[in-house]
Amino acid sequence: MDRHIHYSTTELKADLKYLELLSRSFPTIASASTEIINLEAILNLPKGTEHFLTDIHGEYEAFQHVLKNASGTVKRKVNEIFGATLREAEKKDLCTLIYYPREKLKLVKQHETDICEWYEIMLNRLVKVCQSVSSKYTRSKVNKALPKDFSYIIQELLHETEADPNKQDYFKQIISTIISTRRADDFIVAMCELIQRLAIDRLHVIGDIYDRGPGAHIIMDTICAYHDFDIQWGNHDILWMGAYAGNDASIANTVRIALRYGNVETLEEGYAINLLPLATFAMETYKDVKPEIYKPRIKDPERMYSEYEKAIMAGMHKAIAIIQWKLEGQIIERHPDFRMDDRLLLNRIDYARGTIKLDGIEYKLKDSDFPTVDPQNPYRLTEAESQIVGLLHNSFVNSERLGRHIECLLSHGSLYLSCNNNLMFHASIPMNADATFKDVTVDGEFFSGKRLLDRLDTLVQLACRGGDEPERNYAIDYMWYLWCGPDSPLFDKSKMTTFERYLIDDSKTHTEPRGNYYTLADNTEVCDKILAEFGLPAEGSHIINGHVPVRTLKGENPVKAGGKRLVIDGGFSKAYQPHTGIAGYTLVYHSRGFQLVEHEPFESQVKAIEEGLDIVSNTVVSEHKSDRMRVRDTDKGRELAGQIIDLNKLLAAYRRGLIKERN
Questions:
Q1: pLDDT digits (tens, 9 = 90+) for 82-107
Q2: What is the pLDDT of residues 331-359, one digit of tens each?
Q3: How far is it, in rounded angstroms, from Cα 27 to Cα 608?
Q4: Helix H segments across 225-360?
Q5: So what's the pLDDT on residue 613?
Q6: DSSP codes joined into one string, 76-139
Q7: Would you say 363 and 373 are in contact if contact means Cβ atoms under 8 Å apart?
Q8: What is the pLDDT of residues 621-631, one digit of tens each?
Q9: Tell me, what DSSP letter sits at residue 431?
């Protein structure tokens, strides 16, 4: 079969300027041909494994463990490789070593009588695991992932085998010399980290890294240093981004949520936000706080506070909640286009009677002691409150570490991402009841569907990165709207009932009716319409969301619309686990298809290291393809195929003398 590709001289001349630029990288027929051979080979490799996570909510230990064990992939690999040749305890020890090499080495040295023999056994086992996880990648890609100090040695071990009689002594001598030169510890750490890295080719985080748990800053450190990742912003992420941009209502919300869940580590230790002025103000202003309303809700038994500390936090909690409601009222009054007048509640309170009237019904407030609220001007901050807001504002916008993390969110993040026929966004696409895309007003213009999300992407960048542009003030205010606005694709509920949940007993006032997307997107045809809006085919494509915890205890299913849509918020946050019944999902997309992995609660890294306790992960849904997916079937493959076309044109131009080869 003739596999030569023919291009007319007219075609080549039309692309001549571009081909001349390309010839600078490939100056000869030989170099261009070599690159074509290389790219064609890559196209036939199995696609890399993608992992999708969402709604991590500060649970850094569980998140880090899921990355280390690749959502159970490493354990499955160990079982496949060693099977019945190793006892379960030996396989467990090997897995723990891969997850936590430094910590495990310390424990081993405390009881191991022949450490050299142990080194030899473990090094051989690690090489086998590493050979398995690296097998779907090119040597070039693996080499780029290798630690500099051991690059050559690892290359040799990965591509040689003890089974080859000509190389047995060579292989054994490498292992022996690693041990005799006292580099075994460092080499083991390097191998384990390489296995972790190769087990996950790309990480997708579909929003809500922040709030609830104690370590969002640690999670961000981990993500920002990861080898390949993207982030689709969630409403809790956008809240912190708005706080860094200088939106004072967003700042108040972040502080309130931290105090509500007894999580001040991220604020104080993570980002050096000074809460002392707020504490001082609260102790002076709110001496008799009702504990049942404002005391922190701490779900993690290991995070202990004294009753005195809880009382101080309760006062701070009340102080910042009232400041928040005032600041939000100011934004609503500035922006009638937000259409959120129903959230102006402080002016509806009868302060003498301690009641509020909502929708014609009068409710008794659980707390009506608001000494800083002027009934005649309820949204005006007192002088002391203004000082608190100013100090918090300066802390947020000048936090160096928060700035680095927000820059990471901006450079690697967006409201949505289309990748390998998967459309990822955190919460929703605003829709009308008839399944048409809803028109949403943004700075005086109407936007809907993909065009809306693209417009909001630019608005977020302007708010966080802009300078003195006049429209930046609007963008900063809109950051708060993205957090809780009715037509925000990150929220898409009629209202956020924070005030009612705090101060009104009647649970009917706590409901937050969801937008049409949440029910319409359970329909296959609607999903196809959304996929088409974002340029994806109906066949073989998926929508992947988080935001709404899947209540498995009530029989809810994460798979919607006949498999078109996957909701993978399974409750990473301890605050949600009593409702979900599990501790999170990971969606794994490898060359054989999809697996939705369900995680049981993670106890702690200490127990994982000392007792070998892994997260128990079970595959609850799988979608297998009859033919293994190759790189050519991915977005990257289509990009490489385009490069091959260009290189073939360059070859034709060389051979016809349109471009001269250069030595």
A1: 998 999 999 999 999 999 999 999 99
A2: 999 999 999 999 999 999 999 999 999 99
A3: 54
A4: 235-245, 248-260, 265, 271, 276-285, 291-294, 307-334
A5: 72
A6: HHHHHHHGGGS-HHHHHHHHHHHHSHHHHHHHHHHH-S-HHHHHHHHHHHHHHHHHHHHTTS-H
A7: no
A8: 677 777 889 99
A9: B
Distance CA 265, CA 502 (A): 23
Count Cβ atoms below 10 Å from residue 182 Cβ, excluding itself. 8
**Region class of 339: left (phi > 0), else alpha (psi between -120 and 50), else beta:** left
Tell me the three state secondary structure of residue 368: coil
C-beta separation of 249 from 329 below 8 A: no
**Full 3-state SS string of 457-518:** HHHHHHHHHCCCCCCHHHHHHHHHHHHHCCCCCCCCECCCCHHHHHHCCCHHHHCCCECCHH
pLDDT beyond 50 at 165: yes
Classify the C-alpha dihedral 252-256-257-263 as positive or negative. Answer: positive
Q: From the centroid of its chain, how far is CA 510?
A: 28
Cβ atoms within 10 Å of 341's Cβ, excluding its own: 10
CA distance 619 to 70: 13
Q: Check residue 244 and give its pLDDT.
A: 98
Bridge partner list, 363 = 356
* Distance from C-alpha of 242 to C-alpha of 460, rounded to nearest angstrom: 8
* Average pLDDT value for the chain: 91
Q: Using pLDDT thresholds of 50, 70 and 90, give the confidence band for residue 620.
A: low
